[in-house]
Specification:
With about 110 residues, this protein is mainly alpha-helical. The chain is about 80% helix and about 0% strand. α1 packs antiparallel against α2 and α2 packs antiparallel against α3.
């Protein structure tokens, strides 16, 4: 692979990572975030796949290189799906009960205020 093609793929990879971060930032703990994963996948299919196909057709990439990059893109979709599930699960987890030290501090603060 030529150096300029490698740089181009690096830039595309950063673009995919940035898209993923934007979609993750839009995720809400309340759920109903499936559309975010679908839109992320659609962006990859709309913008990355044709670009990779063209690089392959112009013989800048081998079939294996194009498939490897496409696999990387789709792994980012799965990673986004898993990260969004974590965001949703964190909202389901009740807050931790105060520990013994928190109770001692609270009692001390209450005693000092009297």
């Amino acid at each position: 692979m030529q150096e300029n093609v490698r740089k181009e793929l690096d830039a595309l990879e950063m673009m995919v990572f940035n898209w993923k971060q934007v979609y993750l930032a839009d995720a809400t703990p309340e759920g109903n975030n499936d559309c975010l994963v679908e839109e992320f996948q659609e962006e990859i299919e709309t913008y990355m796949v044709p670009y990779l196909r063209r690089l392959f057709q112009c013989e800048h990439l081998t079939a294996e290189e194009a498939q490897e990059f496409l696999n990387l893109c789709h792994s980012q979709v799965e990673e986004l799906r898993n990260l969004i599930r974590e965001v949703e699960r964190e909202a389901e987890t009740p807050p931790a009960k105060p520990g013994i030290w928190q109770k001692v501090v609270q009692q001390t603060v209450t005693a000092w205020r009297r």
